[in-house]
Amino acid sequence: MEKEKLLNIMRKAEPVLKRYRYPILVLFAGLLILALGAPKKEAAPASAQDTQEAASADGTAQDGGFDLAAFEEKLQQDVSRISGVGRVSLSLSLKSTEEAVYAADIRQSSQNTETTSYESALSIVSDGSYGQQPILVKKQYPTFRGALVLCDGADNDTVRLAVTDAVSTMCGIGADKVSVLKMQS
What we know:
Blueprint: H1 2-19, H2 21-37, H3 48-54, H4 68-80, E1 88-96, E2 99-102, E3 104-110, E4 116-122, E5 124-126, E6 132-134, E7 136-140, E8 143-151, H5 157-171, E9 178-182
Parallel strand pairs: 8-9
Antiparallel strand pairs: 1-8, 2-7, 3-4, 5-6
């Protein structure tokens, strides 16, 4: 019984499908292109813990920027794994913050030999969804001024040297800029 109904519906739809097969085909192709071409957005982390997990080992946040708190946390965990260190508290100070350098078009015009003027315009590119973004040439990550490390094992010279070497290497600063002190009990 149901087969007969289905065959009856197919017989009625056949002339319509034959007549409008190309517009229907174009419609389905357009829907397929829209479905496949839609950009996939990642969901934002829901909590502070998710945000810390989104930061990578080198201190870059998920959006590509430098995350000082995540870098400090990762370095603190690494230093605490050194033999004899014990509990660790780490603080970093920055000399300069993160800076982004964007491409610019600079035009020079001179009216005479004494007067020269410069005009600068930020270079932009379309992002494909009717928006525009500046062209990023490079990102300069922050530079560190110094580090303060408080740990239980700081009274041992070998531990203090190992902690100083680890922090100076990871931060790119000299050993004289790292202070390792005994943590209060």
